[in-house]
Amino acid sequence: MRFADRVAVVTGASRGIGRAIAIRLGSEGARVVVNHPGEAEMAEQVAAEIVRQGGAAMVADADVSNADRVAQMFDAALTRWNRVDILVNNAGICPFVEWFDLTEDLFERVHQVNLKGAFLCSQAASRIMRDQGRGGRIISLSSISALVGGSFQTHYTPTKAGIRSLMQSLAIVLGPYGITCNSILPGTILTDINQAHYQDPTILTRDSARVPLGRLGEPNDIAGVAAFLASDDARYINGADILVDGGLFVNLQ
Ligand code: NAD
Ligand code: RM4
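Above: inputs. Below: predicted complex with nicotinamide-adenine-dinucleotide.
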């Protein structure tokens, strides 16, 4: 029960990696704000699972790219539990698209959700954490895509590099308040975000074989790492990133 007295906000927690992180934090005692963008039914299921495992949860419908909705979400968390200790910036989108077909609108939308969303939530959460005076944890889902390119992800990889950089700068700004800021860089985790891409068994087999551990990841491969970064054991980790890719990145030769 590492998070028995903590309140955690997990963005994009209705599905995939965010869902796994929210349930993991809740199962260890956190009171969890399950954020979602209009996916109430799925978010309620996540909240119910947290409660089933002995935790507490509330759902918060908020598009993270919308400043007003983000402010309302943090107000609701304070109204309910009067504190915020952990923020996990997880919400993200990546519609796979050819470079020559990439539109300005899609480029902007991906930046708004992935990067601006992390900015808005980090600023809102850190103001609360600063005023509480008890420190805090900001953990952001960057990606192996912050380190390497992706041919169908030309709109997305810059946002993941940007999130990693945002955490590095915030580690400096927020360190004096005892608020640590770190990134997780997952490799390829099978979720809805890449489900269409991996419909093709040839691509699935090829990409799985590139991972020294022999498989693509699953959301729970990331959840434990997020819980570690949120825990007291990670108290001196600040401005760092943890690559969680089964060895994919080092498998170049
Ligand atoms: P997913 O599509 O399964 O889940 C994304 C979640 O974000 C969903 O709950 C969705 O509703 C939510 N979301 C989308 N737009 C939102 C918005 N505007 N406001 C609030 N929530 C929103 O994808 P996932 O694989 O679980 O991805 C989670 C994070 O992990 C993303 O930031 C992604 O970039 C990152 N990541 C994923 C992988 C991977 O291979 N799956 C690898 C590296 C990094
Ligand atoms: C990740 C990484 C994965 C991809 C997802 C969509 O950051 O690039 O390989 O499947 O994004």
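Residues 7-244 form a domain with the Rossmann fold fold (CATH 3.40.50.720).
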